[in-house]
Design brief:
about 290 residues, Rhopdopsin 7-helix transmembrane proteins, about 5% strand, disordered C terminus, 2 domains
């Protein structure tokens, strides 16, 4: 199971676990209580960890799309080694932490006024009181964490699809048997699995980015705020955390090998795939790709 794609998937799982353990218990109460019940340390920590998790997720998914392209097209085969992959994963975490530092520095407890009521309630605000800082911040976040990665991933998947389509036409029928066709199917399967992760990420974070951009770029957002935008805000809030929980479910559905390991370790059930995997390993055989 210690393959190059699985190294990135492990890093993705750590980011998901981090946000579930450190953010969800504190942030999930925001829509169930009237005011922010935690102190400024929790405010800074939750915002920082959430940004780290988002950064690691989107940068890892981008790296996975690049890795799948290189695995299928093989222009950079010498860089497809486990040490290089581990180094890339560490660099991704470092970049995500650096990009999340403003949230750790500027997040604070503020007293926000309630429209049509002469009261204020404490809330956790990730933006400082500088003029236009929030506007620039949400735009930069949308570009770095959403739009730019989506463009990069789309480019590599389009190139991947073009290469696969061309290679299918070039390969004669007789040569499509044996190791070659098995390897091609394995790589296509992992590419589809990564694509599912990417689609889940961008679907889960789309409402959140749409709401934030509208709220901070629309000068009349306070007056235009209505039930529809409130529902979109709550949906985006919930989906952003749901993304940290849905990846294992997707992995269980699309990967027979991961499903075999899930069944064994979670349900103490040894299915035929599990037995076949361990039989192959005991004989010293290696799989083309261990995420099939």
């Amino acid at each position: 199971m210690r393959s190059i794609p699985n190294t990135y998937i492990f890093s993705l799982a750590l980011a998901d676990l981090l946000v579930i353990v450190t953010c969800v218990p504190f942030t999930s109460v925001l829509y169930t209580v009237e005011k922010y019940p935690w102190d400024e340390v929790v405010c800074k920590l939750s915002e920082f960890v959430m940004d780290v998790s988002i950064g690691v997720s989107v940068f890892t998914l981008t790296a996975l799309s690049v890795e799948r392209y290189t695995a299928i097209v093989n222009p950079l085969k010498k860089f497809q080694t486990r040490p290089v992959t581990v180094l890339c994963a560490l660099i991704i975490w470092i970049i995500a932490v650096v990009f999340a530092l403003p949230s750790a520095i500027f997040s604070r407890i503020v007293n926000s006024p309630i429209e049509k009521e002469n009261v204020t309630i404490p809330t956790c605000d990730p933006y400082p009181a500088y003029e236009n800082y929030a506007k620039y911040a949400v735009v930069i976040r949308a570009v770095i964490y959403y739009i730019l990665p989506l463009i990069i991933i789309a480019i590599f998947y389009i190139l991947m699809a073009i290469h696969l389509h061309a290679s299918t036409k070039e390969i004669p029928g007789e040569s499509c048997r044996g190791q070659g066709i098995a390897q091609a199917k394995a790589r296509k399967h992992v590419a589809r699995m990564v694509l599912i992760f990417v689609l889940l990420f961008f679907i889960c974070f789309l409402p959140n980015h749409v709401y934030r951009l509208w709220y901070h770029l629309n000068p009349n957002s306070g007056a235009d705020y209505n039930a529809w935008w409130h529902y979109l805000k709550m949906i985006g809030f919930c989906l952003s955390f749901l993304n940290s929980c849905v990846n294992p479910i997707a992995l269980y559905c699309v990967s027979s090998v991961f499903r075999a390991y899930f069944n064994h370790y979670l349900f103490c059930f040894k299915d035929p795939e599990w037995r076949r995997q361990n039989y192959s390993m005991s004989r010293g055989e290696t799989r083309i790709d261990s995420t099939i």
